[in-house]
Amino acid sequence: MSSVVKQPAAAHSVQPSKSLCLRTGDLVYRIETDLPELLTAITTVYRDFDLTTKDFADFHLSASRLSRWKNPFSRDAVIEMIGGFRSPVFSASQVMAHFEWSLNRCVFSCFFHRLILHAGVLERGGRAVILVGESGAGKSTLTAALALNGWRLLSDELTILSTHDGSLTGLARPIALKNDSIDLIKSLSPHARFGPTSFDTPKGDVAHLAPPTDSVRRVHESATPSSFVFVDFEPGRELEIEPVPRTRAFMMVAEDAAINYAALGAAGFTTLANAIESADCYILHYSRLQDAIAFFASDEWTSRR
Amino acid sequence: MAESHPQFTARDGLMWRSWDDEHLVFNPASGETHLLDSIAAAVIREAESSRMETERCCLVLERQLCERNGEEFEQLASSLLNQLDELGLLVEVSQ
Prior knowledge:
heterodimer; A: alpha+beta; 10 helices; 16 strands; B: alpha+beta; three-stranded antiparallel β-sheet; two-stranded antiparallel ribbon; globular
């Protein structure tokens, strides 16, 4: 058996650090990185965003390698928020997934005084639909499909409700798709713009779909919730939509989707109750994405409110 | 000597929302939200205005269930008051 340790063929010295500013909605991030993978990914999925802002940055992020040598297979990259968190160490090929999770953490810390739901939210004709579902329920897949079919994307993962007036804050950031849903959305929309796939992350394979240009342009347009839809992807099931009593909907959101409900106390209760009261609540069972897209474009849906 | 029943008042500051005969109540003291049926909600609502004990709770049950006060009512009322006390939605008061 040979005891010679081979240097990885792809190894070469680390890139010099580069810096860019990214504005998403109201937040500005300054990002310094020596990872060309990240720069390429950002300029792909954030192409429609302001990447040249000179404004004060709300967050300073550093994405870098820990070692001198570039090895695409080793876990040697990390993202840090200056004065804040530090990500787990990951392979540089997974940087986009970890970058997006880092931005989520920044959003939490900035909007902690608003009610944040782990839910997708889209708007059409002034009606905002909040898509709630546990992991694997098809929430992000449906969010992506609707965003590619005329709905304005406010957010894929984080629905942010003002505790003051209940309005929704848009982020319009890339949509995180996982595993089989990546190819499903690529087949549904072959011209959709994707970032690189981060393989074997703690959430499986993750790829980010660039948000529609119109959603990015209109990110500052607020909206109010019109419907809460609990998404239930179930293979083989015909599409069916059933009303959910508001009290049940409230408890499902508060217990399973509201990230900072408990921390907000009375303000969280009032904000969620007002949102549920002003909306209709449904469970959507589906198995075929095309059926769900057609349903949300149908008179049956548009006539509901 | 007659057995004295505990008396309760509703926890201060409870926040309510009611839809379709189901009720949500948020308890600021615990930070917990509870889903209540109309009977439990009626008992707490009445305890917000004046002291609640088993006999009065039986009257609430009678009204809510539209049934005459039966033998099992006292046991049911006592159990309900204890449950609401344990949840922190009612507070026992000294007589």
